[in-house]
C-alpha cells in the first residue's frame, strides 16, 4: 500500500510541507552515559551515516563523515544519503528517526564549497540543485517521524535537510548556529531552503534569514519558528527522545502553531497580495541599500520567493533550481567561493613552514594601554574566555578600557546577542592595574600605547623585566617598525607585531608581523591565537605600513589629490562606493581619524618618496581641529548617526579647479596605484603570496569582495591594461604612477599565473577642463554631469548583456532524472502515519 499523503495546513493551495530539525554533534560522554540499550546497528559500508536503534523503535541516524573535521554534503555523501533513504523507505519497524551529528560543535557545514567552485555550466548547476531537492524531499517523506537535532553549526545544506524533516530541535550550546549563508557565496539556498522556509515561518522572517545569510543562535531560531524547541546540550539525546515520544503520543501540534507570527499586522501583510507586495518592495530596498546592487544573489533569491510563494512546492523547486544554475556560473560567485576557500585554508595553517608547530596556548593575557584599542583588545580576549590584565599610568585611564569594553558588550546585549549574565561574566575576566602585578602569569602581552617609537621602546624594556622569559610580547603598532622596536628587548625572538584593526570587535583581520629576529614559535602562538579570537590572520614581513596600510594609505592620499584638483568630497566617495568599497576614502579619513591617518602617511612618505602624493590639506584640517568622527567634524560633520558634508571644508581646500575626471578614471586613479605597490610588496617578501594580499585587503579594508580581492581584480582587468593606464597617468599626473619593475614582470602571467588574459585596451587619455576657481556646489554639478554620461554608457551595456542572458535562458537544460519510486511498506503503523500527517 502506498504511503498516504500527509494532511496539514494549506498555504495558498500549496501542498503540505514537511518541517525538520538539523542534527548536531553529540558529546561523546553523553553517548557513553545514556541509559538506553543500543539494539541494532546498520553500518555496513557506510562512510558518513550510521544508523542505530535507541529505544522503542526510535532510531538515530548519525552523520559522521569519516576523515573530515566537519560534516559536509559532497557528491559521494549525497549518493550515500540517497541509498540510505531508499533502505529506510522500506522499514516498517521504525517509529521515529533522529538526525544527529557525532562531530563536536558541528552539525552539518553545508555543501562542499570546493565542488561549487568546479561547477562552470548552468545546466549542471540546475541538475545538482534538482538532485539535492529530490534527495531531501524523499528523506523528509519517510514513512515515520523525522526530527533534526541541531547541536553545533548548521549551515546551508544542513539547514535545508532540517527544513525537510517534520520537526527541528536545537541545543543551547554556544556553537549552535543556524543559517542559510548561500548569498555570501554568490548563490541562493538551492536544495529547497528558498522554497520551504517562507512557507514554514512566514515571508518576513524567512526573507531576513535568506537575504542576509546571518547566523541564528538556538534562542533566536526558536523565536522565529525555525526550530520547535531548545534543549540542553548536555542531555541532547535524552531530550530528543522525550520529544519524539511526546509527538508520537499525539501532542506535537502545539509546536506547529507557533512557527508563524500570528499578530494581526503580520497576518494582513502576508495573507493579502497588497501586503506581500509591500514586504517584497521593502526587502528589495533593504538589499539595494546594503549591497548597492553589486551582489545579484540576494536579489535573485528575492525574485525566486516572489515567483514561487503560493505555488505548489514542486514548481517552487523548479524555479529555485533554475536560479541556482544561473548564479553558480557567475564571476561573482566564483570570487566569493574563492575567498571562502582561502579562509578555510588559513584555518588549517599555523603561519610558519613548520606544519607541526602549535606555539604556546594563551590562557592568560596582558594589555599595555587602556585607550580605545587597548579596551577593544581586552574585550575581545575576555569574550573568548581568556582572562586579561590591563595596565596604564593611573586608574582613571585604566577605567577607560573598562568603559570601552562595556560599550561594545552593551550593544550586543541591546541587540539580544548577549545576555546580561554573559555580559557580567565577560567583564569579570578583565582586571586593571597601574603596575605589572599579574603580568608574570600571562603567556602573551599586547602593547597598545601611543604611536611614538621612543615611548614604545621605553615601555617595552620595562615590561620585559616583569614577564616570564617565555612570554610572547606583541605590539599593536600600525606603522612603526617592529625590528627597530625589538632593539629595546634582550629576548628579541619572542617579540612580534600583532596588528588589530579598528574597531577591534568588527574588523576580521589581524596582521601577524614577523621581524628579523622573531621565532617561528612566536609566529605560531600569535597566528593560532588570532584564529581562537575569531579573526583571520595573515603573516607579513616587517616594513613601513606592513601590508594593508602600505597599500591603503597611498589610495587615501590620492583621494586628497583629486580633492585638490576640484573634485568634490561627495563625488570622490561616491565613485569608490560605486566601485564596491564599504565607504569612500574621504569618509575613511574621518573614521580612522585625520591625525592618525596623517601620521601613517608621513611614515610612508619617508619610505615611498615620490611614489605617494603630498598635500597640505591634512595639516590644515588638524590645525582647524577637524580630526574626523571622534571630534564631531572632519570632512563631514557628525550629529549622532547623521553625517553631512560641511561646506566650511571648502576654505581649507582652497585650490583652483584644474580638471574633472569621469567616475571610471577616478576609480582607476585610486585603485591602480595599490596594484602597483602590491607588486613591490610581493617582490620584497612583505607578503608571501597573492592570496595574502587579497585576503588582507578584503578583511582589512573591505575591498570589494565581489571583485575577489585587489589582485584577482587586477588579473581580471589584465595587468597589461593596468600598466598602460598607469603610464598614461604618469604622463598626466607625475612620477608616482610609474609602473614598478615588479609589475612590468607580471604583465604576461598576471598575479595568479592564469594563462587566459583579457584583451588589451588602450588607456583613455585624461582631458583637462580649464576653469576659474569654483565652489564645491558648482564642482559637484560638473562631476555629476560627467558621471551621468558614464553611467548612461554603463546602463546601455548592461541592457545589452541582460538581453543576451535572457536569450540564453530560453535554452533550458534537460531535467534531472527522477529517482525511482519505492513502494512504501504495508506494515507501517497507523499511529506513526497519523503523527506524520499532523506535522505537515
TrEMBL record:
GO molecular function terms attached to this record: enoyl-CoA hydratase activity; long-chain (3S)-3-hydroxyacyl-CoA dehydrogenase (NAD+) activity; NAD+ binding
Domain 3-hydroxyacyl-CoA dehydrogenase C-terminal per the UniProt entry, residue ranges: 545-638, 668-757
Signal peptide: none
Residue ranges with Basic residues bias: 754-770
Associated pathway: Lipid metabolism; fatty acid beta-oxidation
EC number(s) from the headed UniProt entry: 4.2.1.17
Annotated keywords: Fatty acid metabolism, Lipid degradation, Lipid metabolism, Lyase, Multifunctional enzyme, NAD, Oxidoreductase
Region (Disordered): 754-840
Keyword Transferase tagged: no
Biased segments, Basic and acidic residues type: 788-810, 830-840
UniProt enzyme class: lyase
Catalytic reaction(s) noted: a (3S)-3-hydroxyacyl-CoA + NAD(+) = a 3-oxoacyl-CoA + NADH + H(+)
Residue intervals of the 3-hydroxyacyl-CoA dehydrogenase NAD binding domain: 364-542
Keyword NAD attached: yes
GO biological process assignments: fatty acid beta-oxidation
Compositional bias annotation for Low complexity: 771-786, 811-829
Coiled-coil region: none
Family the entry assigns: In the central section; belongs to the 3-hydroxyacyl-CoA dehydrogenase family. In the N-terminal section; belongs to the enoyl-CoA hydratase/isomerase family.
Protein's name in the database: enoyl-CoA hydratase
Organism: Caldithrix abyssi
